[in-house]
């Protein structure tokens, strides 16, 4: 990062004061921060001082430090760190910042810098003879799709050609910079295609909406009109006629009535269900094997906790929780794990619900190496340090 220093004494004014309007603004800005945090206003106050005078002077730094009860060096650190603050006098009418980052460079920003050198000064940060214009190269200005571009004050001017930049500089030099419209300098809207949109150029037809009845239509129906009987489809249906033969008996058929009555006695009454055999309960299988009992003959023999138990966590697959569980069943040393037989390994695997992890991680082989020679033997056997 380049070294940034304040301008020489010959350029520094004797004092600094905010204008009446800016002084009111500064007081309101400081009040936005809670008690004891007013120093957070240092950046906005420095920026407002620059907007007022065009650059940040030593007097402005000291004034803002006094306003915020900060040491001068602290405000100086902020002003010299951020390149947005101009520490030397700049053009009184325009300071042109030319973007020199890759997209703008590929689109012709070097030609724009050549214009600045010929129209303003051969060197950046130097003012023209009248002191009204200056320029510099800056990093990305954030409108890469509209490259190349420059920034003057708070406005950007995009899609520039050398000829158009010359016109802009001449206009600012004449004091008429406000007449230039910021943004893109070609025929497009923001970052849209040049010449106008190329897609979605027609308006989609709106979906048809159901017409609402007018008040006249709503009240036109007679109030005392006879109610319309419900349709057959809306009537509640009964399954009695289909399930009870007795109800199908015509009143004019006495012979059929006797026959149907007999059939009704053999048929369940409507609304009742025929008795169904109770489902045979199926014996559910155990979801998982039961945890082996502590009294199982295959449980490894435990010991009393020694004065210096081994760090079982050195075995890959054993963490603090597993180590504590092993200690609970009397496993404290590498030698114990190294001596486990197959049945004992299976018992521990089931007790920990590991599902074969002890075999996969080869606890026994790890424990044998650690019991024999500690970390050095482990590295010799496995080619790496224990976990």
Automatic annotation (TrEMBL):
Biased composition (Low complexity): 244-264, 273-293
EC number assigned by the record: 1.6.5.11
Pfam families, per database record: 2Fe-2S_thioredx
Keyword Iron: yes
Reaction it catalyzes: a quinone + NADH + 5 H(+)(in) = a quinol + NAD(+) + 4 H(+)(out)
Organism domain of life: Bacteria
Any one GO biological process: inorganic cation transmembrane transport
CDD domains referenced in this protein's UniProt entry, alphabetically: TRX_Fd_NuoE
Any one annotated GO CC term: membrane protein complex
Biased composition (Basic and acidic residues): 203-216
Spans annotated as Disordered: 188-308
GO molecular function term, any single one: 2 iron, 2 sulfur cluster binding
The keyword Iron-sulfur is assigned to this record: yes
PANTHER family with a match to the protein in the record: NADH DEHYDROGENASE [UBIQUINONE] FLAVOPROTEIN 2, MITOCHONDRIAL, NADH DEHYDROGENASE UBIQUINONE FLAVOPROTEIN 2, MITOCHONDRIAL
Protein family membership: Belongs to the complex I 24 kDa subunit family.
Name the UniProt record assigns to this protein: NADH-quinone oxidoreductase subunit E
């Amino acid at each position: 990062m380049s070294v940034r220093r304040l301008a020489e004494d010959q350029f520094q004014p004797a004092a600094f004061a905010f204008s009446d309007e800016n002084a009111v603004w500064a007081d309101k800005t400081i009040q936005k921060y809670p008690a004891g945090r007013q120093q957070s206003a240092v950046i906005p106050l420095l920026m407002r001082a620059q907007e007022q005078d065009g650059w940040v002077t030593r007097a402005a730094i000291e004034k803002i430090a006094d306003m915020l009860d900060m040491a001068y060096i602290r405000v100086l650190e902020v002003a010299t760190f951020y390149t947005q603050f101009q520490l030397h006098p700049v053009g009184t009418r325009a300071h042109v910042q030319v973007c020199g980052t890759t997209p703008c460079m590929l689109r012709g920003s070097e030609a724009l810098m050549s214009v600045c050198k010929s129209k303003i000064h051969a060197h950046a940060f130097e003012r023209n003879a009248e002191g009204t214009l200056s320029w510099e190269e800056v990093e990305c200005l954030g409108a890469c799709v509209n490259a190349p571009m420059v920034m003057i004050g708070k406005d950007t001017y995009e899609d520039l050609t050398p000829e158009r930049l010359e016109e802009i500089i001449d206009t600012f030099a004449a004091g008429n910079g406000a007449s230039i419209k910021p943004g893109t300098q070609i025929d497009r809207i923001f970052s849209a295609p040049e010449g106008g949109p190329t897609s979605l150029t027609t308006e989609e037809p709106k979906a048809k909406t159901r017409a609402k009845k007018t008040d006249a239509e709503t009240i036109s129906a007679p109030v005392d009109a006879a109610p319309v009987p419900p349709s057959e489809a809306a009537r509640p249906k009964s399954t009695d006629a289909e399930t009870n033969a007795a109800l199908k008996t015509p009143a004019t058929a006495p012979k059929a009535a006797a026959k149907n009555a007999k059939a009704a006695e053999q048929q369940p009454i409507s609304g009742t269900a025929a008795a169904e055999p109770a489902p045979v309960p199926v014996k559910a299988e155990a979801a998982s094997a039961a945890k082996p009992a502590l009294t199982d003959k295959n449980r490894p023999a435990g010991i009393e906790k020694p004065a210096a138990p081994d760090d079982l966590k050195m075995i890959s697959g054993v963490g603090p929780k597993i180590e504590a569980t092993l200690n609970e069943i009397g496993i404290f040393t590498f030698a114990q794990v190294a001596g486990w037989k197959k049945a004992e390994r299976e018992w521990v695997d089931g007790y920990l619900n590991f599902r074969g992890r002890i075999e996969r991680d080869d606890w026994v082989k790890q424990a044998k190496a650690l019991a024999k020679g500690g970390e050095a033997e482990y590295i010799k056997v496995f080619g790496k340090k224990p976990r």
